[in-house]
Each structure stands twice: as structure tokens, then as C-alpha cells.
Amino acid sequence: xxxxxxxxxxxxxxxxxxxxxxxxxxxxxxxxxxxxxxxxxxxxxxxxxxxxxxxxxxxxxxxxxxxxxxxxxxxxxxxxxxxxxxxxxxxxxxxxxxxxxxxxxxxxxxxxxxxxxxxxxxxxxxxxxxxxxxxxxxxxxxxxxxxxxxxxxxxxxxxxxxxxxxxxxxxxxxxxxxxxxxxxxxxxxxxxxxxxxxxxxxxxxxxxxxxxxxxxxxxxxxxxxxxxxxxxxxxxxxxxxxxxxxxxxxxxxxxxxxxxxxxxxxxxxxxxxxxxxxxx
Length: 280
Fold this sequence. Notes:
Blueprint: E1 7-9, E2 15-17, H1 20-29, H2 34-44, E3 52-53, H3 54-68, H4 70-76, H5 78-83, H6 90-101, E4 106-114, E5 119-128, E6 131-138, E7 146-147, H7 150-166, E8 176-183, E9 186-187, H8 189-198, E10 201-203, H9 213-220, H10 233-241, H11 247-252, H12 264-277
Parallel strand pairs: 1-3, 6-8, 7-9, 8-10
Antiparallel strand pairs: 1-2, 4-5, 5-6
Helix pairs in contact: 2-3, 3-4, 4-12, 7-8
């Protein structure tokens, strides 16, 4: 058991006291049972030291969890898996588009649209009935990066220009337009306050509470294929290039796995991992 007190170094550079409950909660969210959680907690204690980084703690816990249950290790790696969609932001845009498509939205990614004054590029346009979301995606390869207030200020003005144009178009008569910014990291407090004040929807890894990006992915099991532990980075890239971004796509259509030309135990491993991810 972890009974000694020590500090850990966060990605932001801050030093905070190690909280065993946070580690246990993250292991619970991975779907690990109580016995597995205690095994990991007991084993990890011998690796921990004062000043250890959160990244090192994650790597140790992931390796220990991987030995116990591969699907739990995959779910535990969710935050890193989103970053692994990079290095560019375009796969993240496609991921958000696919996530919304799974919720019955009609989605378009990387669109050039007319505003009242000028043209604009919109990362994702999601439409359901007479509601249309105009979405800007801000992807970062570094967890410590935050989206500051300048981004919602800029995006709000751009979307207002698009709404001004579309509100006068017959094809959009009766539509309700909403501006939204999605990031895989965090928003600054000023950015959040501006979003609330201006009715601008913000979605980040941990915001809004109860309906954050992490919570939506976990709730609906919209797992990115980059979290799969049974295939390598090159194979994940092949899937992304073929517009397979969600594990659910592989679960719903096992024939999509044929893209990877896997045989024998390698094919069996990925099928077992995918089935385990969606087991009730």
C-alpha cells in the first residue's frame, strides 16, 4: 500500500502532493475491477519517489495495468490516445466530426464558408434538424497547453459573421446557430468566463463538469483507435488514413480490420481487445 507522503511534478511544472485517491479513480474509470486496482496500487508503491512526474506515474501504472487486463490499460491511456491522434490537428477535427456523427449529426470537416464580410474556414459543421454547430477545434500535443481568452474572442467574431450571412439565406430559414470551441487540453478561467457570458459553447478535456470531452468519450464509448494496445503506431496511422478513428467503427464492422492485413494471434488480439472494450 502507498502510505508515505511525497510530491509529484505536474506537466505544468507545479509540484503537488500525491493523491492516491486520484490514481484509484483513474483506474476505476478504466474499467478495472477492485482486485486489479489493488494489485496495481500495491505494485506501483515500490516505483514512486518524491518529485516523480505525473507522466512517469502514468507510464508505470499503464504497464502494470497492461499485464492485468489489456482493455483496462487501453481505457486508462485515453488522454494520451487523444494526443496520439496528432501531430497535426486535422485527425482531431475528424475525430470530433465522427463523434458527432455517431450522435446522428450530419457533419462536414474542414469547410470554407461565406460570411457576411469575408470567407472563413470552419473545422467542423454539425447539423441536426434545424440546429447547426459551427465548431473550432484547438488541438495540442502538450497537456500543459491552455486555450486563452483570445481564441474565443476571435472565434466568436468569425462565427457571428457566418451567422449574419446564413440567417439571411432561405435554405437556413428557422435555423438556430451555435458557436463552439473544442480542445483536448484546457481553457483558461478568462476563456471560460467569456464563453459563459457570450453564450459560446466550450468543450475541453475537463470542462464543463459532468459533460466534458473525457466524460462524453467514456459515457458513449467513443474511444479513439489510438488507445488500442494490441496494434502499433504504424497500424493506427493506417486506420486513421482510412477514416477509421473510433474503436466503435471496428466493433460495428469487423471487416474494417482487414485494412491492416493481420493474421493469427495478432488478428485475434485486436478482436478480443475491441470486444472487451464494449463488453457490458
